[in-house]
Amino acid sequence: MASLRVPYKTVDDVEIPTDIYLPEHAGPKPAPILIMIHGGAFMLGHAGINNKDQIQECLERGWIVLAIEHRLCPGVNLFEGPMTDVRDALSWAQNGGLVKALKANGKDVAVDAERVMVMGTSSGGHLALSTAWNSDNAPLAILDFYGAKCFADPFWTKPMPDMPKHFYDPLSEADVKAVYGEKAVFIGGLSLEGQAPDPNHANPKQRQGFAMHQIATGKVINTIWPSYPSHLERIDPILNVNENWPPTAIVHGTADTTIPMRLSKEFEEKLRGKGVRTAFFEVEGEPHTFVGKMIKGSETWKSQKRGFDWLEERLKESYS
């Protein structure tokens, strides 16, 4: 499954890229676009950790997939870094940037820039949701896999139990300073899904240790949003739900303790209260990291696939 890697923006002379996956067979209509955002607590991961079977599933539906990179916290805060990057990637896809990049690389593909969908897992789920209010032109639909949300909930400042003991140990000042010093890094360490780090990153273990310490000690939200608990309206999806919010589906494992399913249920209730087209797909018995570990064809695969079927339905409706 080949991809084309091109920049969608430049920050401080650093190109922020996306991997473009193209469907093998053109359909009768220009191809819609799905922006796919990896997880990693806003501090870890990279585009290469997105589930390849999910990407292939989208290609078989005739969609173009943009597996985007975004800058990682804490060298930049959540709003100014990841949220801004995802918004800019959406605008790039909608406003001709993708078309120009494909032509420049000799790819003759008809692109439907009016039909851009967004999905993500974990922190990527949050970033997908953020395009609903953080963009000039919201996506056609959003698919959120167990995304971070409801940041005023006490859960976000409680230590995470049952993690390896060394993640609770204090970090060295040198390591902390080094991670904060990475202002435009977009590749970092293992993801929470268990995939391997990208070998091109200078010191993945340093960033990995930093991020896991924040997770273990309940400091993620304070780290990615230093003004916490102030100005949560800038970053929290539940505080921004309105009547114009695009159709949104949520997929969440019932055994998730990293981001409890009840937070997604609370968010679903808020969406429905505003009259937003909404669907919720529970994945029975699965923990937070199931997307990275699921096997195609399994019951888990079939369960989560309903989210992509739901996106397909929103696409069909958009043509009528």
Please provide a written account of the structure.
The chain is an alpha/beta fold and 320 residues long. It has helices at 52-60, 79-94, 97-104, 123-130, 173-180, 204-216, 220-224, 261-273, 290-293, 299-319, and strands spanning 4-11, 14-21, 31-37, 64-68, 111-121, 142-145, 248-253, 278-283. The chain has an eight-stranded mixed β-sheet, sandwiched between helices. The protein is globular. The two termini are 32 Å apart. This is BD-FAE-like domain-containing protein. Residues 19-137, 221-271 form the BD-FAE-like domain.
String of helices and strands: EEEHEHHEHEHHHEHEHH
Q: Classify the helix fraction into a percent range.
A: 25-40%
Average residue-wise pLDDT:
93
Strand content: 15-25%
Give the C-alpha Rg: 18 Å
Domain BD-FAE-like: 19-137, 221-271
Keywords: Hydrolase
InterPro entries: AB_hydrolase_fold, BD-FAE-like_dom, GDXG_lipolytic_enzyme
Protein name: BD-FAE-like domain-containing protein
